[in-house]
Structure formats: structure tokens, C-alpha cells
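user: can you give me the structure for this one chain? C-alpha cells are fine.
assistant: on it. calling the predictor now.
[tool input]
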Amino acid sequence: MAAVDLTPLLSTAVVAAMCAIGLLGLSWLGPGRRRPTLLLALAYLSFVLLTSLMFFWPQEWVLIRTALVGGLSLIGAALVLAGIRDFFGRPPMPPLLIGLVVAALMAHTGLVWIESERELRLLFLACSYAVFRLATSWVLVQAGTTRLWGAALAVALFMALDGLLSVLRVTQLMGDGLPWFGIGPSLAQDLNWMLLLASTLSSAVLVLVSSLLETADKYREEAAGLRSILDAMPDLLFEIGPDGRYKSFHTPDPGLLAVSPDKIVGRRPEELLPEPLCQLQRRVMTEVDQHGRSFGHEYALDLPIGQRWFELSASCKHAVQPGKPPSYIFLARDVSARKQTESQLEYRTILLDHLFVSAPVGLCLTRFENRRFVQTNAAYRAICGYSIEELDRLTTADLMPPADREIPEQLRRELADNRQFGPTDIRLLCRDHSIKSVRLTAFLVLGPTGEELVWNLVEDLTASRRLERLQQEFLSNITHELRTPLTAISGALELMTQDAVKNDHAQSERLLAMARRNLRRFDGLIGDLLDMEQIVSNQLGVVLRDQPLAPLITIAMKINQPAGKSSRVRSTVSPDDEHLQARVDSDRLVQALSSLISNAMKFSPDDAPVTVSLVRQGRIVCITVTDTGVGVPEAFRPYLFDPFAQADGGSNRHRQGSGLGLPIARELIERMGGRIGYSPGPDNVGSRFHIELPISKAG
């Protein structure tokens, strides 16, 4: 009989040991199920220790062995219950279970030392063991939602039978060994061990298979998640194996591939891509070998849908088995839209830089906190007269006159409140200590780093103020110029109505001559005003044709030749130059020459000659009007051809004129393809005006 008992005991010990080792390994491989597998492993180790005590414990220490064997069986059953509860998501060791285990162990230990109560001890031990096994079976039955519900029911059945057979075996011993249902004590003991073996093995297999299925589900879920991420990514992914061939790829759009998708796997990049791109891939692979990754490489690729730009990154995919060469994962991101945006931004930046540098209005960027200059354009530096290096050491407050030092604080407060200031006319202290009137407009903006900056637009009002003054003087002058001939004409006509003048023929002729002269002057003023209006509206027309210039000079001289003074205006045109021709409008050229000759006579003494010359200078013909008068003041020369400008301004000036003759003459000459200029006369006496025109082919 002992030989019969030995086999199930040893089998149970071996199976329990194997299950314990397997579950211990699973607990370290699967961290998500570490606690339940550890509990089950400890339970099976307790069964191993129980069988070892039964075989190897000395017989003379029978009480200690009995106490340990019974206690280990209860602890093992309780640990199995705790592990199964934890495995199916329940609290592993609730207070009730802990209390039952402690009470059962204490009762069992107490009954061991009462020899007379052996039957009661065995019955208590068997019932306690059966309670734990039946509770475990109930937990397994309730786990019916699992995919392994059938296996769980089988394990529950084994454990329930194991617990019931333990009670049956004890009751048989208490009933003098009478068999129940044909099962004697010896057979019941063998069945008990076999059921313990079966429940141990099946529960371990259930836990192992459930863990593996759960791990597989987790991997499938992660794979599905990765696939979803890949499908959501707009990037291309390629894997190149150690043999240099494409192993796999993923693309959101087949149109981004250089070849058909079915021609990629198993091919080398050299077979599919241009050589420059293959060289880039090899360089990237070298960087991956050295640093583990590489990124930020941009390249252009001509595709059937057009040229696209990509950004290439790569990393290393190490082989699972040690010693095998790695693969390379390439990620290609379509950055065509970004490149287009960058190109547009670069163009706009260049355009804005060009506008900033070449803007005619002064621009400067300053810091709001300390008013220091960050950047200035040439127009601003021209207004204030400082260089870039000098402005770097100054603030905007340094460019304010002492009397206006409160303006920077006013500007600062208004910018803080409204984020803009102006436009407001202020005064600017220049490098040469002069003070200019400027119009300031300022805007508060945020820089790239979040710093508050101020854009300042500074418009120099010197020219506009001068133009306003000239316009006022012109209105005053033209009023005077128009009133003078009208007054003379009115006076002459009034005198001619008197009887004394009517009978004096000579006096009448003088009055009529004076009226005609003032009418011509009045007509000239009206003509100048009309010409200026056409120039402003860009409606002044010229009719160009090739014609000799000498006759036109003669006509202009005759128009301005004073009566009785035929030698006042002289011509120095040589016979060799009389044939010179240019493509001009004859009437407009005579008008321009008349204006120059009239000015020369006006600003020269009455008997001083005015000389008109015509010479050839290469492919240019030059007409020069020279006088020996007062000349043009040097300070006025830059404004000589400006509208309304007169060196002797104001209504109380000494010489008549509207101030429009020279500006109209310049406009006429320029519309004929020439240019007009001024220089002082010989020995810096008088004036010299010259007209340069291109010689026509006929000349």
C-alpha cells in the first residue's frame, strides 16, 4: 500500500514544483500579472513543502510534522484562492479570508496537541481545506465571461472534488473505514492526491494560458494602435534590411512614391531612386551607425504629381537575436507646403528688408523699455545726420531738443495705453545741432522673443514746409503779376477815352503799344499756368520730328530781341554747326529757349549782351545761353528748376516773373529726350544755361 501511495505523492510534488517555477517565471515576464502568479507560485511551493515533509520528516517528530503538514495544506489552499481571486480582478486577501486562515491555523495547531481529539482534528482540517477549495471553485465559476470558461469550470470541478474527497476520507476513517459508494479509505486517499495533482496542473495551465492570451490580446491591441497611428501619419516609412533591400514600407498616399507600390519590397534603392538621393540615404545610414539616428535632411524628388520636397530622418532597428546586423527605419515627411511657405516668407522678408532700406520715409525700430535703437534705415539717418554706430550709443530722447524732453514720456504713456502714437509733428535735434520739423507715427509691437519694440515712422517736413511757403509766395507773386498788366491795360484804355488823347495820334499809339505789350505779358502768364497744369496732370504733349536747330534759335532770339537793340541778343553759331539737327518739337523748343533768353536778359544790365551758342559734342548737340548778370546764388541752385521757386521771392521783389519758366523749360526738354542744366559763367560772372539734345540721324 505504501508503494501505491508513493506515486501520487511524488507526482504531486513534481507537478507542483514545475508549476511553481513556471508561474515564477511568468511573474517576471508579465509584470501586469505579477501578483496573482506569485501567489499561485507560493501556493504550489507550499504543496511541494507539504509532500517533502511527509516523506523526509523524522517519525519521532510526528506532532510537529502533523502540525506543519496540516498548516501547509491550509495555507496552500488559501493562497490558491487568493491568487485566483486576484487573477480575475478581485481583492486577493480580504479581511474575512485573512481571518478564516488565521482561525483555521490556530484551531488546527491546538487540536494537534490534543491526541484524544485526532478524529475531530482531521475532520476540522478536511472541512477547512474543503471550504477553501469550494470557495476557489465558486470564484472560477463566476469567471464565466472569460474565453476559457470551460477550462475554468474543469478546474473548479477538480478543486471541488478534491475538497469533498478530503472530507469523505476523514468520515470513512471515523466510520471504521467503511466504503462509501464503493470507495474505500485507500482509494479515497489516492483519488485525493490525484485530484490535487489535477487541480494544481490545470490551474497552473489555466493561469499560464490566460496570461498568454491576455498578452497576445495586448500585443494585438498595440499592433492595431500602431497601425492606426501609421494610417494617421502623413509620412512615408521605409525599412531597409541588412542586405540593403526594402523589407517593408507604409505610405498614406501612393502618389508620393517614386514607383508603383508593388515594385518596392525586395528591391534596392539604387534600382528605384536617383543617384543623389541614394547617396543621401547612404550618408544617413552612416550617421545612424555612428550616432543611432539622423534627421533633418531635405531633398527634392520629381514625382508623377510634380516635384515634392521631403525631410528625411532615420533610426536603427536592432535585431532580436544578438549578433545579427540591424535594419534601418527611414521616415520621409512631405514638406512641400512648408518649403513653399518658407520661400514666400523669404521673399516677403527680402521685400520688406528692401522696402525698409530704400523707403523714402525715415524708419527706425527701438526698444520700448530703454528707447535704444535696434535698426534704422538710410532715410532716417539722412534726416538726423547720425551714423549707425553713433545711433547705437543714443536713445530717442537724445534726439529731442531740451525744450521738448517731455515728449518721450508722453510717447511712452500713449504707447502703453493705445499701442500707437501720432501722427504728431515734433522737432528733431540733428547731429549738426540744427532742428528739423518731422511728423512722427509710432506703433508698439512684440518682437520674436516677446520683447516690446516700437516702430517709428519719421517724415521730414522740411521739403513740404518749403513747398507750402513757395506755394504761398507763388500765389502772392502770380496775383501781383496778373494785376500789373491788367492795371496797365485798364489805365491805357481809360486814358484813350479822354478828349486830349483822342486828338493826339502819337499818344494814342503809345498807349495802344503799352496795352498790347501788357496783353502779351498777361497771355504769357496764362500760358505758363496752363502748361504747369498739363505737366502736373501729365497731359503735356510734344510732337517730335527731325529738323535743324539754328533756325529755331534765331526765332527765339527775335522773340526776345528788344526794340531798337538788335545787338542785345547775339548768336555764335558757326557755319559748320548750322546744319545740326535733332528730333524736337519746334514750338516747344522755341518756348524753352525763349524762357532761358528772357531770364538772362531780366537778370543782366540793360546793355549787357546775351549770347546763344550751338556746338556739337560727340553725339550730343549743346545749346548754351550765357549772360553777364548777377548769376544764381549758390544756396538757391539746388532749387533752381523747382516749381514756384524764385531767388528773389515775395511780392516786393525787384524783377517780374511767375517762377514757372524754368520748371516748364526743364519738363519740355526732358520730354524731347534731352536735359537742361546750369553752371556759373566765365570767371564765375553771370550764368550759363545749357540744353543737351541727342543729334538725329539726319544731322
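assistant: here you go. Residues 1-6, 650-654 have pLDDT under 50 and may be disordered. Residues 293 and 315 are 4 Å apart (CA to CA).
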